[in-house]
Amino acid sequence: MSTSFTTLQLAIEGAVARIWLDRPESRNAFDEVVIRELGEAFAEASASADVRVIVLGANGPAFCAGANLHWMRRAADFTHEENLADAGALATMLRAIHECPKPVIARVQGDVYAGGMGLVAACDIAVSADTAWYCLSEVKIGLVPATISPYVLRAMGTRAAQRWFLTAERFSAAEAHRIGFVHEVVAADALDAKVAELVKAFTGASPAAVRACKRLIADVAGAEIDDALIAKTVQGIADIRASDEGKEGVQAFLQKRKPSWLVR
Fold this sequence. Notes:
Elements: E1 2-4, E2 8-13, E3 16-21, H1 32-47, E4 53-58, E5 62-64, H2 69-75, H3 80-98, E6 104-108, E7 111-113, H4 115-122, E8 125-129, E9 133-135, H5 149-156, H6 158-167, E10 170-172, H7 173-178, E11 184-186, H8 191-203, H9 207-220, H10 227-242, H11 244-254
Parallel strand pairs: 3-4, 4-6, 5-7, 6-8, 7-9, 8-11
Antiparallel strand pairs: 1-2, 2-3, 9-10
């Protein structure tokens, strides 16, 4: 199954949805159309009952170069209200990726700049080619990475952000890995194999448990360990144990057979 878009491609093949940014001539840079279509593609992939994992990739030499120059020229004449609406659309799209109930893998084959950093950070896992370069370039042109900051800060941490946000220096895939922004760095010709490994891991796991784990991470990360949090985690394990997939998974493990989600 596939759906046609003007700035990207969406292909749903069984348990895997693949979304490809497809404006290589503009280095897959954002404009209002790209932002809207990314939101639509993620909504469609999320709604598919068959999809267990989403892979976000890009065609061409760059993964995403941030804002499209033509869009920036138009935005230069925006009113304050238009700027709020414009930034709000980007924020909504990034949040949709971050809160997607299905796990999302960023397949980074090329350079990632500015807003593109937000795209990668909003995904659950990022795998990068070793030739990719990264840059939070906003301060060079008098801007700040405000809309993407909630995701990028979570991905690289405050201390790393104090350098890369403020200096707008480029950094390598190896450095992106060192600071935790990406999970794996591989040679370009090994990128698809590494993504396939992760896809296999996700499709082997309980779909309900993966969804619950995503919610768990969001609930627990940075939270104070108090009675309310402990109660929430206790409730979480009790609920999942009592669920259909929880019961099935434990029984399959004890009976040394495949769980139902692997034999559908």
